Amino acid sequence: MPVPRRAGVLGSPIAHSLSPVLHRAAYAELGLDGWRYDPFEVDEAALPGFLDNLGAPEWAGLSLTMPLKRAVFPLLDEVSDTAAAVEAVNTVVFTADGRRTGDNTDIPGMVAALRERGVAAVESAAILGAGATASSALAALARICSGEVTVYVRSAARAAEMREWGERLGVRVRTEEWADAAKAFDAPLVIATTPAGATDGFAASVPQRPGALFDVLYHPWPTALAAAWTDRGGEVVGGLDLLVHQAVLQVEQMTARTPAPLAAMRAAGEAALALR
């Protein structure tokens, strides 16, 4: 009889996470009847002890959300170049020999979500915000943007951080003040990485013929900015697209089954969000 396998998502807070919905949908579609995926409320202080109680063959892997994406680094045996580039791990896989390997599926997930909507390469781009997600956005743009990326920030400190990330990732970064964020909308691709409500005031400034918008939020959806963008006929990629694509990569790594069922996972996520 095969050993039952387990996986889960860790973070604090964690009750809002859609990851269990997506991963369980994948297991059902793939016929992995003995697999479980559960949420666990774990903060930075509790992470080392939690990990010490896990391992192969029962445990296949973990998804990590805030505030654990950097805290997990010293607890891993190996980290992928992608995760190291942005100092953030969102995926841990337990190998058969007991090693803990870390990866970041947010970055290729962003690229895949954009490619699905026909955005495979751009000559320039803009990022709204300079938090943790913005560094992943820069890393994604390093793969598809041939020119300059303009980042709109609220403080000089954040501006300096984003320029440093640009140097590390090989992206030409220019920073501008947040008050001028509407100027971002002239770019062929805009990535909004800000919290809910932060870009609402700019919705009226969306041009008549916008390029593509990637708004990383998924609830509530659509955001005022995404709705205005759609009304103007622009292409919009949402946070659920990102969540599903990064989860697809996690499922493939943890289960060694490819391809993961993208359509079933997206449908499950949409159904869960409709109930919120």
Please give a structural write-up:
The chain has nine helices and twelve strands. Strand 8, helix 6 (156-169) and strand 9 (173-177) form a beta-alpha-beta unit. Strands 2-1-3-5-6-4 form a six-stranded mixed β-sheet. The chain is an alpha/beta fold. The chain has helices at residues 19-30, 47-52, 81-86, 106-116, 132-144, 156-169, 224-231, 239-255, 262-274, and strands at 5-11, 35-41, 59-64, 78-79, 91-94, 100-103, 125-128, 149-153, 173-177, 189-192, 212-215, 235-237. The mean pLDDT is 96.
User: Distance between the terminal alpha carbons, to the nearest Å?
Assistant: 39 Å
β-sheet strand percentage: 15-25%
Strands of the biggest beta sheet: in what spatial order? 2-1-3-5-6-4
The low-pLDDT segments are: none
Output the number of helix runs: 9
Query: What is the mean predicted local confidence, pLDDT?
Result: 96
The major beta sheet can be summarized as: 6 strands, mixed
Helix proportion range: 25-40%
Q: Report the structural category.
A: alpha/beta
User: How many beta strands in the DSSP annotation?
Assistant: 12
Net shape? globular
C-alpha Rg (nearest Å): 19 Å
N to C succession of SSEs: EHEHEEHEEHEHEHEEEHEHH
